[in-house]
Amino acid sequence: MTITDGATGVAKYINTMHALPWGLNVVGKIGVFHTFYKTNEKYHNVITERLGKIKDRFLHALKTEEPGKPALMQYLCFLYNRDETKLYREVLPGRYQFWENKGWMQSC
Description:
- By secondary structure, the chain is an all-alpha fold.
- It has two domains: about 5-65, no CATH class; about 70-100, no CATH class.
- Helices cover about 65% and strands about 0% of the residues.
- It is built from five helices and no strands.
- It is elongated, with a radius of gyration of 19 Å.
- It starts with 6 loop residues before the first helix and ends in a 6-residue tail after the last helix.
């Protein structure tokens, strides 16, 4: 079944533009065409099964103590944000202090 309402594209966009750059560990993404979810039993069951698998991966990730390695995009965003924090130290003193306290200003 192909759904062309943009739900899948939105999930991909959120992952690429917001989750990964901010260092979030994405365990799954799903776009749900809400009208089909409410009216089409087959689609509803497929989505519900996928959500269950994502939930299981999420719970497993919460129990994992070892953080995963950052993706290249995450690392590049970290470097950008670190340099921006240094550049605007006077404008964003709270942000600079937070990064300094974490030891991130001297990392890499």
